[in-house]
Structures are given as C-alpha cells and as structure tokens.
Amino acid sequence: IRRKDYNYLGEIGQGGTGRTVLIEDAQIQSKFVCKKYSPIKETDRKTFYNYFLEEIKILYQLNHPNIVRVFNYHLYPETWTGYIIMEYIEGVDIYTYLKTNPSWIDNIFYQTIEGFRHLESYGILHRDIRPSNIIISNQNHSKIIDFGFGKKIEFNNDFDKSVSLNWRYTPPADFQNQIYDFKTEIYFVGKLFEEIITTQNLQSFSYWD
C-alpha cells in the first residue's frame, strides 16, 4: 500500500501467515487495521494464498455489528501477497473484558451468539474460536475477528491445521466422525464462556439452560 495513502502507527501482531499493523488515513482522521498476507516460510506463500483469498471473500459477504468489518483489499497475485483493510476495534479480548466487567456477561454472550447466528445464515464457519478472536470494544460491543480459517471444513483435503487449529478446548465427540458444523461452533462458544465463568468465578449468568 502506498505510504501517502496511510500513516503507519504500530504493530498489532505477527502470525504464521501474515503481519497485522495499525494504520491511519490522515485525510479522514480514521484508524484501520491492515493485515498483510506474508507467510513466515517463503515456501508457504503460494500454498496458502487461496486461504487468504477465501478470508477476503468471507468478510466481504458480512455486514453485522458483531463481526469485524472489511473496507478494502489489495491483491498482488504475481507475488502471492496482498492486504486487507479492516475496521479498527479499540478494546480488549473477551476474557480480559469480563474480568473487569462481569455484570456485562449476559449482554456480551447475547451479542456474540448474534454474530455467530449471522455467520450461520451465510453458511460460514469461523473454526478458530478463542478469547483473542472475540474483541469487546470500548463501546461494549462484541466483535468476532480473524477469519483466517473460516470456511466449510474439508477433512480429507484441507491442510493439517484444519482439525487441530490448536484447539483450546476438548473437541466434541463429533470430531471422531469428522463432523464440524454450526452445532460445533456453538459448542466451542459455550466452552469459551464456561472457561470465563469458572476461572473468574462469575456468579450470575442467565443462559445456563
């Protein structure tokens, strides 16, 4: 991306398939997140490029208050790289937020489920549900982020991480039958909130049943 378009503000993170930075458009005085597809291993650049394209296709379908928004993208297929310009969410991950705002757990749970309900309506599976992928904004809005693994799972043809993905929680029994569907997504959302409730000893939650 041309430097004159955006000002670089700082690093957000570095993953196995890319780098994420914070940028600013000075003309409209707005901050954005820029995700560059740039695998650590050069040999993976071509291999996983289509997964990057898939992430763009997924995010471009979505427009929901509880899902991160994509504004633009730039692709350079001749060098197997590209950029996604996304909404900047000023806030903290869901685990950190509920640790200091436990009374908001019912509201945050409802918002999060609404986000996943919207994904289901578009036939999209997130597949990497963990606290760091649900951000709570300073305005108390739950936002689902990071769709790097999002799609309908293919157990036979997908790359190695399609099942493992460093699962934070015990996989459901359906995994033995190579089933990952929307019920599986809700199972992992439930396990995430179970972890928050038990480790933080939260006493009030309206959705146990």
What does this structure look like?
With 209 residues, this protein is α+β, with helices and mostly antiparallel strands. Helices cover 26% and strands 23% of the residues. It has four helices and eight strands, in the order E-E-E-H-E-E-E-H-H-E-E-H. The chain has helices spanning 49-61, 94-100, 105-121, 182-199, and strands at residues 7-15, 18-25, 30-37, 70-76, 81-87, 91-93, 134-137, 142-144. Strands 1-2-3-5-4 form a five-stranded antiparallel beta sheet, with helices on one face. It has a three-stranded antiparallel beta sheet with strand order 6-7-8. Strand 4 (70-76) and strand 5 (81-87) form a beta hairpin. Helix 3 (105-121) runs antiparallel to helix 4 (182-199). The chain starts with 6 loop residues before the first strand and ends in a 10-residue tail after the last helix.
**Helix percent band:** 25-40%
Element-by-element helix/strand order: EEEHEEEHHEEH
Radius of gyration: 18 Å
Q: What is the residue-averaged pLDDT?
A: 83
Biggest pleated-sheet summary: 5 strands, antiparallel
Q: What is the tally of helical segments?
A: 4
Low-confidence stretches: none
Distance between the termini: 49 Å
Number of strands: 8
Any idea what the shape is?
A: globular
Q: Structural class given helices, strands, pairing?
A: alpha+beta
- Strand content is 15-25%
Strand order of the largest sheet: 1-2-3-5-4
